[in-house]
Specification:
The complex is a heterodimer of chains A (about 100) and B (about 170). With about 100 residues, chain A is an alpha+beta fold. Chain A is built from three helices and six strands. Helices cover about 35% and strands about 25% of the residues of chain A. In chain A, about 30% of the residues are buried. Helix content of chain B is about 25%, strand content about 30%. Chain B is built from three helices and nine strands; from the N terminus they run βαββββββββαα. The longest helix of chain B is centred in the C-terminal third of the chain and has 20 residues, at about 150-170. The termini of chain B are far apart. The chains are: A alpha+beta (about 100), B alpha+beta (about 170). The interface between A and B is large, with 38 and 33 residues.
Chain lengths: ~100, ~170
């Protein structure tokens, strides 16, 4: 399990394809070098999509939380746990990767 | 000033067959996968390529890469008039375009499709978890020729009738 550090930068893995189609973000994992519609696909809700857009390989996780707190008019401390939780889940599934060290 | 409510971010695992993807959406998704140089596997819909590809078969589309398109190959392309994803067979080449037609489509070719609208080729067909070999091998040249001269469907109908007759005789 990857440790999620707030100063780190995350980006979508090369082993997925993500497309926003008809308002829905669809993430296709490229398992064994194939995009397989018989496999499981992933989607995110509206807040998840907003976080996904910010996890672009440029923003640190701290900056993502600050951007969200301003968009949703919430204290960073109130939303940080949820954001880290989603990043942890996406990282565990290798949908997101930590690019801080690259 | 009103702000959107921060709802807990949720991640959902879904099965593709429960996702009502339109043809345009599927085309978009397939193009994105093939652009990465990776094949795309999905359920075929419709009967326009029967008997070689049937409704519900699982087909794999591979990127064209640098391998040129040849006559007889089954291609995935953006239909020039319908603007949607179609998987049909190339029956002739004309300059930089390909004449395409469904194996089970009577008196109608999709027309000349520019190479830019062709996004991939069918490299595998699976039916009931078994690979179907016929239709993608060397016989594809003959299939394309028969289709081009409107002989494929009459031949298929005759063979179907013949097979049914033999089946009835066997059972009698």
């Amino acid at each position: 399990m990857t440790e999620i550090i707030s100063g780190n930068i995350f980006a979508p893995s090369d082993d997925i394809v993500a497309r926003e189609i008809e308002g829905e973000l669809i993430i296709v994992p490229l398992v064994a070098g194939i995009g397989d519609m018989e496999d499981e696909l992933f989607t995110l809700n509206e807040t998840g999509k907003e976080i996904w857009r910010l996890l672009n390989g440029k923003n640190t996780l701290d900056e993502v939380v600050v951007a969200l707190s301003s968009k949703y008019n919430a204290q960073p401390g109130e939303i940080e746990e949820d954001v880290v939780g989603l990043v942890q889940e996406l990282t565990n599934r290798r949908i997101l990767i930590d690019v801080s060290q690259i | 000033m009103t702000f959107p409510k921060f709802e807990r971010p949720q991640f959902q695992v879904i099965r593709a067959d429960t996702l009502p993807l339109s043809s345009e959406a599927l085309l978009d998704l397939m193009s994105a996968v093939l652009t990465k140089g990776v094949p795309f596997r999905f359920y075929a819909k419709g009967w326009s390529m029967a008997p070689f590809i049937k409704d519900g078969d699982v087909i794999t589309i591979s990127p064209l890469k640098s391998k040129p398109v040849t006559v007889g190959e089954v291609l995935a392309f953006r239909h020039p008039q319908l603007e949607k994803l179609v998987v049909h067979r190339s029956i002739a080449k004309q300059g930089a375009a390909v004449l395409i037609r469904g194996d089970h489509v009577e008196n109608y070719a999709d027309g000349l499709v520019p190479m830019d609208d062709i996004i991939g080729r069918v490299t595998k067909i699976e039916r009931n978890k078994r690979q179907i070999w016929i239709g993608l091998g060397p016989e594809r040249y003959m299939i394309a020729w028969l289709s081009r001269f409107n002989l494929l469907i009459p031949l298929y109908n005759w063979l179907s009738k013949f097979t049914r007759c033999r089946g009835r005789k066997k059972n009698a």
